[in-house]
Amino acid sequence: xxxxxxxARSAAGGHNPWLIACIVSIATFMQVLDTSIANVSLRHIAGxxxxxxxxxxxxxxxxxxxxxxxxxxxxxxxxVMGRKTFYMTSVALFSLSxxxxxxxxxxxxxxxFRVLQGLGGGGLAPSEQSILxxxxxxxxxxxxxxxxxxxxVVAPTIGPSLGGYITETLSWHWIFxxxxxxxxxxxxxxxxxxxxxAANRKERxxxxxxxxxxxxxxxxxxxxxxxxxxVVIDRGQESGWFGSPLIAALAIVAALSLIAFVxxxxxxxxxxxxxxxxxxxQFALCMLAVLATGTLIFASIQIVPQLLQTVLQYSATQxxxxxxxxxxxxxxxxxxxxxxxxxxxPRWIVGFGMAMEAVxxxxxxxxxxxxxxxxxxxxxxxxxxxxxFLFVPITTAAYGGLKPExxxxxxxxxxxxxxxxxxxxxxxxxxxxxxxxxxHAAALDARVDPESAPVxxxxxxxxxxxxxxxxxxxxxxxxxxxxxxxxxxKQAQILAxxxxxxxxxxxxxxxxxxxxxxxxxxxGGAGAG
Length: 529
Prior knowledge:
Order of helices and strands: HHHHHHHHHHHHHHHHHHHHHH
Largest sheet: none
Strand content: under 5%
Distance between the termini: 13 Å
Helix content: over 70%
Number of strands: 0
């Protein structure tokens, strides 16, 4: 039987709900793809704009910071502006800022436009998930989210290959410019087919008649908290963490803002974020699971292309091609996940997915400087296999037990968790890699004995290189020193990447007991929603 609440709040109007699901998936595919498509192009962007690779990574993190700032209030904005109006505004802002990113003259402007792009992109997924939750009844909501899940799971995995191909065939500018026609298509289809439900209009009118009071303090507190934490994680390693006055100050401001935000919002009549939703245990656990999933997805799609291009010397296109099979695997598995959800409790599906992610991340520790592209591709397939069992059941289970009017709020907060997990994953992976690279390099350097037979053999081989000069019988020739240091640096980097994958495996393992704490739900009914 169709859920009454879903029918009254449906965005389908007189159209087929599955058409609406396809339409709202277009913009999210564009937005999620854009989050990952730049990863394999960062070196090209850095070179083209005269910046370092570490500076270029801010292109990714600045986008996530902006998204994190707007996500908590997107539910409130959707209610005040009208969900359809807010959604189309977000698509338009994302498309225009994408055009500006493609035309950016330097890194500073590019980062600014990426911030605007993040503000637009941050409002997309919450609106779309709210539309799906309201448009589909509980018994078909799982299948609808499986269709939507194709965009969230597959887009990050095909993004690197598409980004590499565009960068090497055209230029890095086009990884942003391609968003413009997609955005225009999304606006046209949304304007023509997506409806603003009567129940939503009534809620908006009631809110405005009662006198709209903007929670400016709440917005400022959450923006300072999330933005501050993002900057601390992003810039901490480069600035020496809390040895930097700026990083220490930002951390204190962010922590105090978050502490003040909770009692402030709980005492507001019109809070910008209704924190009471966390009283729902199912939703709170799903938030933790989404946080872990975001960490795994975004950290891996950032660190793996970096590994392929720096250690294995892959081109951007080759690195992308090695990532593509994982996306194809997820595409095949998502419909299977939707079927499995009819018969198996979400907690078992999510627990299985987290366990598979732990296995996949641990398998990635088996890397070497001479591993083949086929080996890399199979490792990505293994990881994507686990991801296919995470997003759909977590997202659909999160709405179980929530009131219909809470869907906007729930969608916004779930995406906050995903983006925060992504930004923490990217920045954390880079910090661990940087620290462990130096540690391993120092340890390897201390173990080098110039008098050992392997080193002397290397010296004899290097002495035949052009420009070889020996400073004495017990000293290495300069070419030999260069070869040795290059080999040590590569080995140190490999060991550091292994440490990163081990840490991600631990994150996935922590997600297993979180998943098992989810409550049992009726299968095929409210549980499927």
